[in-house]
Design a protein that fits this description.
By secondary structure, the chain is α/β, with parallel strands linked by helices. It is built from eight helices and nine strands. This is Short-subunit dehydrogenase.
Length: about 260
């Protein structure tokens, strides 16, 4: 039977591009999204074979719902070969505003708890089967904090650390954990940004590189590589110079803007 790939955040952007890339390679798809109608409409536009995909409706932050659709997926389609925890949100925040503390809560619930909830239904079964790949989608923003991006940067740094921990837990069972750190990718998530985005990448090109990385079971990769080099250089800057360089950078829009 062909490869089964389980993807969250499949209603747009990176999730959709990964789904199409895997589909064109012959894979079967389990697609998770809050907006299931968007996924169904997209699948019809792409003329996907209904026998090769199934759509599941859930918010990844809903732990009970994610456990349920995990069981449904295994029952209906089998145990996935690849699970990609892609769903995430990015909203600007300012700690001086009380309402933005709720933004931070929602960001962590989606980007971190939701990621673990995505993997949870499959880890034990993959370990028992002694094969499978779990993919956490972080961000280059995990490497260094950006003014106005406190919730997002912190959540993506947590994704990197969590996936590293999980990698050590799963390795004895032959299950791989891959951490992807996208740079600036042309998706609905980035199009509202009001600052320059170096090395902006088309989402289809990102998907091509991401799938190759996942198949090679590379543990950690920044895509595109140029963004990885830039991020490492920024990591090496002393704090006083980094703060001066980034202090005047336009900030991510807050929820109220």
């Amino acid at each position: 039977m062909s490869e089964l790939v389980f993807i969250t955040g499949a209603s747009s952007g990176i999730g959709q591009a990964l789904a199409l890339r895997y589909y064109r390679d012959g894979a079967r798809l389990a697609l998770v999204a809050r907006r299931t109608a968007e996924v169904e409409r997209w699948a019809a536009e792409q003329q996907l074979d209904a026998a090769r995909f199934k759509v599941y409706g859930a918010d990844v932050a809903d732990l009970e719902a994610m456990a349920r659709i995990g069981r449904e997926c295994i029952a209906a389609q089998g145990l996935p070969d690849v699970v990609i925890a892609n769903a995430g949100i990015s909203i600007g925040m300012d700690t001086a505003h009380f309402d933005d503390l709720e933004v931070m809560r929602r960001t962590f619930e989606t980007n971190n708890v939701g990621l673990a909830a995505t993997f949870h239904p499959f880890v034990a079964a993959m370990n028992e089967r002694r094969s499978g790949t779990l993919v956490g989608v972080a961000s280059v923003a995990a490497i260094r904090g950006l003014p106005g991006h406190g919730a997002y940067c912190a959540s993506k740094s947590a994704v990197v650390a969590y996936c590293e921990s999980l990698r050590g837990e799963c390795r004895p069972f032959g299950v791989s954990v891959v951490t992807l750190l996208p740079g600036y990718i042309d998706t609905p998530l980035t199009r509202g940004n009001r600052y320059s985005m170096p090395f902006l990448m088309q989402v289809e090109d990102f998907a091509d590189q991401a799938v190759r990385t996942i198949r090679a079971r590379v543990s950690y990769r920044v895509i595109p590589w140029q963004m990885g080099v830039l991020a490492k250089l920024l990591r090496l800057l002393p704090n006083w110079l980094y703060d001066r360089a980034l202090g005047s950078r336009p900030r991510k829009k807050r929820a109220s803007e």
